[in-house]
Input
Amino acid sequence: MSKETIYGYARVSTREQNEDRQIIALMEMGVPEQNIYLDKLSGKNFERPQYKKLLRKLNSDSVLYIKSIDRLGRSYRDLSEQWRIITKEKGADVVVIDMPILDTRREKNLLGTFISDLILALLSYVAETEYRTIHQRQAEGIAAAKARGVKLGRPPKPLPDNFHEVYQKWEAGKVSTEEAARRVNMPPSTYRYRASIYKNATL
Output
């Protein structure tokens, strides 16, 4: 089998930038770098441009490598459907590096197919359940923090030392918003926002 028939798929979310680990694992399996398709998108669905481009390339002479099953997707139903498309409609083989039993090249008989499908169902169910649990815990944590009065988000930068003095002159109409913003080294919109918070805090 020629190298041109070997493909790899990697995915990271937009919040992560650690695709190197996946790329290295794929290349160690013999996947040519030009045959690796990478999406920087959530795994919640398959509306991913690189994945769609890869799918068009696959045929019965192709082998697709992925590092772990959750890189392909997280939804149990969608993942099972894509596995069916790749292995049944396209006729391609799939190798999951972190789970050697998920290698459709191993057994081409009915039992081998049944075992692969069974393991896939189990792993995809676990991946989706884990994903939902994480999000549920995040939502519960945010709700609990809000209930305790915790303000979420990045804390604002400290006000410059001269803010009070400039604010007093601005409030008295002695300087314009643009001039006040320049003196405290802020964009005018940011100055107006910080000034409104400062005013409420000092009332």
User: Anything to note?
Assistant: The chain has two domains: 3-133, 163-202. The chain has a mean pLDDT of 80.
